[in-house]
Amino acid sequence: MSRTLQITYISLGLLITVTLTILAIYAAVKANHLYLPIPTFPNVLAVVLPMFSFLVFLYNSSSSKKGFIVQFLPRSAGLVILTIFDAVLATVASTNLQPELLECAIDNRWIKLWTSKNVRAIKSIQEAFNCCGLHSTVDRAWPFQDAHRSARACIELYKDRSQSCEQPWKQQERKVLGIWLAIGLTGMLVKAIFVLAQRQEPNAMIRQHIRQANSLAQRALTQGDRESESYRDDPTEDRQPERPAIEDPEDVRG
Fold first, then answer.
1. Between residues 18 and 239, the one the model is more confident about
2. Helices (H), the chain
3. Would you state the pLDDT for residue 1?
4. By C-alpha distance, which of 187, 24, 182, 164 is closest to 97?
5. With a threshold of 0.85, does the pTM exceed it?
6. How far is CA 153 from the centre of its chain?
7. Which pairs with CB-CB distance under 8 Å and at least 24 residues apart come from 226-229?
8. Do residues 87 and 42 touch, judged by C-beta distance below 8 A?
9. Nearest to 181 by CA among 45, 81, 56, 52
């Protein structure tokens, strides 16, 4: 791989890594602040995967004097492992994006928050979307219903809140899962392109060596032809050596 092409790949990889990392951090902050019903492991995985992928990309892009087979096989192990994690992240995201599962996750999370009387969580969700309750403004909203307050306590306390929290909360859940899906699919696509480029590199090197060998052979043949033509054009080439003149015996006697 040429130096210029290597720098271009690294710059593009760095740009993709920074973009995906920023999106992952944004999704993680949103998920934490809004108490979204998402697993913790994929949330962490979405943040660290782009950075680890870029490090492995740098390692695989580094020049080496080893042969391709010796170099590619051990180095591809990191790409394979990270591709598996990309697939896991994309699978978790696409699975949880199914409407039935999304609805179930939202309901279960709100029930847990309401049952445990988690004032901080429910209050944060209601303040973020300026809403009350889950399915309706009186559905398990904060302030909680008790002997002194009715189910309408939230809309009575906050006069400007006329919507429930289900739809905006669910929309944020979809957004976070969509970011996960984009990170996983982008990671797999970039790694596939990189592996194909790496596989093409030895073929390009072989073709270059063949071209160089052909060029040298052609040069040698051309030089040989020139020398042969020069040898044939030499005017002294076919000239017979002159024999010494034989004197006439009579002249010798005289």
1. 18
2. 3-33, 40-61, 68-96, 99-115, 119-129, 153-157, 166-232, 249-253
3. 52
4. 182
5. no
6. 50
7. none
8. no
9. 45
